[in-house]
């Protein structure tokens, strides 16, 4: 997507989520804009799905997630540039966001907001560690040399000081002072404290209270639990500490209370809990690696679609810190490469130029970066059968790798560029496993096939490679520039025509597939097998009627024939409520045509031609 299109995309997305005033906060992950909204009833979900540049939307974890794909960081930056007030809201600590969802949903949401900012540092340092393993294994670098030690420091820094990174990120999530939070957790890694311990479980005393000593370097849960507890303490202290002395009193009191509390209670509980979770997962893998791999490989895509996959991240990182390896990540890789296989299968099978283009462009990011959501939402979910193919392939490959206890030695996104992260005694198994996932998924996608929507002879296409569209309604045909709506009249959504309807029947202007059937009944999107994308919008601002006086006669994904009834509406009732009933028929992908010739403006019936399109030659 060209950068010049971001402004239009951003404006439409912000508008359809209820406007800037409806946004509590916004952040992004690898492929999604994640909105926290004040009132989700203001969201026009179907309209957002229909925005060019949006793959789909997902609701979960108390967030409204708009899936963009590989350009999400650029789109996020464009949002903050166009709406700086959203940026300030993210950083304002006095915004009260009402919790949404059950306790498990909120926990996953919290994990996502804590881990998302630090994943990039974890992945980069992890790759350095993996490369060093290869270099030293094959004698290309000496472990006692200074070069190795300097590079090892670069690779180990994030993992060794992981509690500090988590403290800072958790402080942002829990809306407390991040520097006081880092100071609290930093005390658990300070030499005076670590010097008290020779081994985990050693005892010390604080004012006569016994302290079970633990090593906190590389741990995950103690820092998160400690800062969560501190978030309540800080709010309490701010009620009593005068502003005039808060600059030193807040941090002093916080450290005096939280550091002893962390070393006596929260820290040992957190370490034990983290080790316990890792033990349960690894025991399951050890006792039935095949079953564990089957479940993870087949089910991971669905966890990602629900946005709750972040709940597994602390377990994987805890395994790497405590054991030096993790067995979950290779199982996840099975799902990743199965998604990539879908893209290849669709590319080989599809006859549609646009679909093949999407498959080809999404295959490279999947193989090289582990970014699969454009494939999942743009191909697998859309065409359904490819989703079945990747589920089967991911399950088979995951079971294979689980059976052999395949290991990852650092945290990375599974991809061809991160192969060193899986180096070791099970590396060959990993290579075989991801190859299985990719090839099985591609083969199943190809042989299962999928329905892209077929056209028939009733689609009005002539020998000159022209495509003809008939009117979608009976009435007076007028110039789109006369419409009393700046978006339509300005052709921001594409070239088209408008009508003043005489009755309440909308019909299909061409053979095709229903891409979007708005639940309000006021609009519908159709796509022909030739790639024409048509939006029919009945009236101006009629979405405000919330479906009253409209009846949608078809469903999303349904194939329709030219002239088939799509929508019925009560023309007179809508007029009585003072709505402009002008109906627009827009070619939303006008750029793929060499010419769009509009016929003479006149009175038309549903079966009369109104425009002719000349498709660009391949």
TrEMBL record:
Its EC number is 2.7.1.-, 2.7.1.69. Signal peptide: none annotated. The keyword Membrane applies. Residues 485-589 form the PTS EIIA type-1 domain. The chain crosses the membrane at residues 114-138, 150-171, 178-197, 203-233, 245-270, 290-315, 327-348, 360-380, 392-415, 427-450. The keyword Oxidoreductase does not apply. One of its GO terms (molecular function) is kinase activity. This is PTS system beta-glucoside-specific EIIBCA component BglP. It comes from Clostridium saccharoperbutylacetonicum N1-4(HMT).
